[in-house]
Amino acid sequence: MRVLITGATGYIGKRLINVLLKEGHQLYCTHRGHNEMIEELTQTDNLKWIKHDFLDDETGLHNQFQCDVAYYLIHAMKSSNKGFESLEIQMTKNFLLLVNSIGVSKIIYLSGIVNTQQTLSPHFRSRFTVEKILNNGNIPVITLRAGIIVGSGSASFEIIRDLVEKLPIMVAPKWLLTRCQPISIRDVLFYLAQVIHLYPDRSIHFDIGGPEVLTYKQMLIQYAEVRSLHRYILTLPVMTPRLSSYWLYFVTSTSYNLAINLVESMKIDVVCHEENIKELFPSRLLTYKEAVKFSLSHYDGNDVVSKWSDAHLLSNIYDAISEEKRTAPYGAYQQLFKKEITKEEISNITEKIWAIGGENGWYYGTILWRLRAFLDKLVGGVGYRKRNNKSTLNKGEALDFWRIIEADKDKPMLTLIAEMKLPGTAMLKLYITYHNNNYYFIQNALFYPHGLWGRIYWWLLYPVHVWIFKGMARKICAQ
User: Fold this and answer.
1) 56-73 pLDDT, tens per residue?
2) Highest mean pLDDT among 4-8, 189-193, 244-248
3) Which residue(s) pair with 414 in the sheet?
4) With 90 as the cut, is the pLDDT of residue 224 above it?
C-alpha cells in the first residue's frame, strides 16, 4: 500500500517506519525540519521524505502524490502547557485538507483511552477532540486508544525509570494510586500495523492495553523488582497538580510542559472499556514486567530507536541558526582550540569525541556543566538529560543539554547546538581536519548573541568559557 505517515520523526513514527517497510509498503513520511535532519534516517526506494508543516495549509502538497492510507501521529502537547489544544485542532483540519486531495481511503489515528465517566484532562480532552474532528470528515477513521506506553525512550517509561533509579524512598502524590492498563511499545506497533488491513465503511475505535490493570505505584514497585532494587513509596493525601508537576520536573528528565500535562492525565483511571481488538488480531501481549525487561534490553544494547525528547521541533533551531548567520555572518563569538596531531592519534581522539557526555561527562569542569544544567532546570529549561546510547551518536538526538545536528564518525565531525536557555544560539563543533600535509584537531565553541544582553552574557562568562573549553580540548587530545 501507499502509506502517508505524519509525525514520522516522533517517538512512534520512527519505529512505525521500520515495521511498515518490512511489510513492503511504499511510505511517504512528513517532517517539519530542514533536509539536514533526515539524512541519517532510513533511506530506501520505498521511502520518500516530505517537508510539510501542518500548521500551514498553503504548502503546495495538495494533489502532488497519491496514498491509500494515512497515519495521524502528530501531537502538540510538549510544545506548551497552554494553547496546545488549539494548535492540534488547526493541524487536524489541515491534515484533512491534505488527505482529501491525495486519495486516502482510511485514516489510522493513535489516541488516548477516554473514560467518559470522569472529567477529561486537557491532554485526553485534546486527543478526543482531534478524534471527533477526524470522524466528522469524509474518510473512515480507525482510532486506537492507548494509555501508558511502556518502551525505551517513551515519556512515561523515562519518568518511571528516573524515579525508581534515583529515589530509594519516594514521598509521592496520591495519583500514584490511579489505575491504568500499560501496553508495551512492541504491542502498540503490532496493532498499528495490523489495522491497516481493516476496511471499515465508517469510523471505528479500539481500546488497546496490556494484560494487566495496575496502579502507578504498582508499576514503580514492579520496575524496582525487575531491577532488583528496594524502593519505599509513601503517598500523600494532598499534593496539588502544580507541586506534582514540579516534583516530576526536578526529579526526572521530563520537561515542565510535559510534566504538568501528564500529571493532569495521571489523576484519571486509564483502563480499556472493551478489548475486542484482541479477537480480531490475536497475539500474546507482554505483561508489564516483560515490557520493562524488553525496554531495558534496548538500553543495554545501545539500540534505542527513538526517544520522546527527540520529537523536538528542530526546524526552529535551524531557523534560529540561519537567521543569526544571515544577519550577522561575522558576529559570532568563538572559543577556538586547534592542535596538530599525528595520524596515529586520530582513532583515540575520535573515540573520546564519541564517548562525550552521559556517564563520561565533558572531561573537564563536568561539575560546572552539571551545575549549569541544574540552574537551567530551575528556570524551565531542559536541564540534564541522559544520552540515548552509550556508544553511538545520531543526528537529531539529545545529548545531555545539547542537540546533535551533525554526527559523522568517518570524517570525524560532531556538531552540537545548546538547548538550555540562553540569550543567544550556542554551538559546539569537534572535528579533525587535514591541511598542508598535517592533521589537526579542532574544537570551536560558537555563540550568536541575541541583542545587548547576549553580548554581556558572553563577556561575563568569557573567563569561565576559556578555562572549561581549553581544559576539555586538552583532555580530548591527551594520550
Assistant:
1) 765 567 777 899 999 999
2) 189-193
3) 407, 430
4) yes
